Amino acid sequence: MQITTEIIDKMKDLFFDVKKYTMQYFNGLKDLSDSTQDNNEQEVFELLGNAMSLGHDTSQDDMPFGPAIILRDRRSFDISDFVDADIKNLKIIVNDLHYPVLIARVADLLWTMDKSEHLLANKAVEAYKICAEETFDKDEWVTFVDFIKKAYRIAIRLGKTKKPFIELLNYIDTRIREVDGTDVRFFSIVLIELMIDSNFGQLQSYVSIMDKIISDVRQKGVIFRAEESFELKIKLLRKLGNSNDVSITQVEHAEYIESLARRHLAEEGLTDFQHAIHYLETAALLFRQANKPKDEKRIRLELDPLRNDYIDKMPKISQKIDIENEYLAMKKFLEGRSLQEKVVTLGMMTQFHTKQELEDAVMEKRNKFFFSQMFTSTLLDNDGKVVVHIPPLDLSNPKADIELLEKHMHRMAAEKQSMLGLTFLSMVLSIIHSEHGNIVASDLDFLVEDNWFIPEDRKQIFKTGFALGLNGDYYSALHLLVPQTENLFREIVKLCGGLTTNLRENRTEEWKMMTSIFNSEELNDCYDENIIFIFKGLLIEDAGANLRNRIAHGMVSSGEGNGTLAIYFLVAIIKLCSWYSRDCLPMLRTLKYELETLTSNFANRECAERHSSNLEDKDGTEL
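Above: the chain's sequence. Below: its structure in token form.
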């Protein structure tokens, strides 16, 4: 394989512009390959096309190259698709490629695959600098900075004392000083941050540039650029060791953010109200960082009534689900049955979704509402306080972050549980209450007494909690049953040979956190992972119901405590306990087939669950 004059001439129009996207180069080289009959030219164009088609992510230091396009069942060319002959040929032709963008890509690829190729690394750095110079524009800055970052990634690996790195920093410094903060976007900000991270020795001169940028963006009201500028100046001052100036700048930043909040509060729109709350929260945090506790307290005291107003102003989303036929069918099914059979039926109506079902539901929602799933979802409590932010899953690999995926699964579980509590479980509970009136603790002996799952000294409190719940006092039932359910899982860990406490240095013991209990090896080896996942979400996950933590801190209001998730939890623990009750087992066997026949006709059950995944405001804030 060789590069001929004819090949260079044919590529002239394609590589004259260094601002093209990777697939534009790939398509252009493919066209050249298709239009020639010369075998050498075809091989060269195809090999270079594959090299240019690769995606390039400079944040992935060791391996920045990968497929530019990844779909569910296929992808574009990957660096791993190169065979030994391809690499050998790239090394043969790299010195004859003529065009800087092509030289930079091939030399970078070869060095990435073999870090001992220092000459190729130097060649790539120089070629990237030439590309940067050709694209220099302080306002349309993205391509320039992209080439600089590609050069930087290589140069810093060669060594901070080596010529390529020193020359690159000097080049960047020259450009920063030349522009002197007069750019209208992020040119100076991005490059100055790069210089701070590089430990460049002449950072002091950038302080005045940052002051100029901050003054300009404050006058023009460019909010996002102003925030970035303040944060970068603080980072720069910290690097320089100017602690006093850091505090002064933090206060200036906080006051600026607070002024934005005041501006939005003067407007009447709901979005303005939301922005005002966000800015006040940010200002409070900034005042805290600046060691201004009085200002932090002043703003935080203002936030609570504003959040309540925001909740009142939010549009209410209502959905009507007709379950009249299901109600009549269930009422007929339960007619003439004992209280015991009705309670067992109630538990059997509760669905424990498997982890796989929840993951599938998350993926289905992600595909169905693709655009909204690209943004962070925010969950608010009844007082308007932020409970949790749930970032979007990675577009190309949604399972890359398992912890994040499980957060989405817990949120999905809570939505489904809430809808079940609202519809079918409330339906059965209303029938039980209307037909049996006031239920007392002794009525639940069949569920609790001959039950190895419930500790002997806890049986009475379980019966009391169940009776309260079946009588409609879910709020009181929660306060009894949630702590006892926590203890149930601690007891299971003990039975499985695990520890439920930590031994301190002073020989006292403290209870392990529930996170440690649910994640314990003993529990997960001995017990069903799906049940563990469901109750972990119900008890301690902020993306789920989080009932244990909220009740422990007295945060559950009577409205929430009598709500749909409270109903689901009550019935879920009834279901769980019924599995281990000797008196319930015959009823479970008898009712199973009868109930399956009945519920198979409940067409609205799936409909209700599907509705639960749509309760989301357009800005990603869950209601």
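The beta strands are 55-56, 65-66, 377-380, 386-390, 501-503, 509-511, 621-622.
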